[in-house]
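Readers outside the structure-tokenisation community will struggle with the description of the input data as it stands. For illustration, here is how one protein appears when written out as sequence plus structure tokens:
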Amino acid sequence: MKRILLTCATAAATLVALSAADVDLKKIPPASTKTDVTYAKDIQPIFKKSCYKCHGEEKQKGKLRLDSLAAVMKGGEDGEVITAGKSEKSPLIHAVSGAVEDGLMPPDGKGDPLTKEQIGLIRAWIDQGAK
């Protein structure tokens, strides 16, 4: 039994290392210097324009909704999409910045890619605690 547990733990550690290695942090724009960034005022309008088509009230690809703060914090079928206080470790930032190969959101033909400024604002929101 101990041997099986050790093998599972080793496999899990390897998967985490591989997924972290697959993220190209150089592709992530810097966080905005804007202070007091909130979901309702600053982030929700970005998500509404670019993300609701696939992650809104009517449709939730990957069981992910971005149309309310509670839904964003809950994440989707693959788990949490933000790590409050650590935008560079947040899968949402990896996806919208194209830091993961073949993982750019929104995908081609599904909406306009987010600008560096928009990604920077989302980063600032996450770094400030995702309130």
Observations:
- Residues 25-127 form one domain.
- The chain has six helices and no strands.
- The first helix runs from residue 2 to 21.
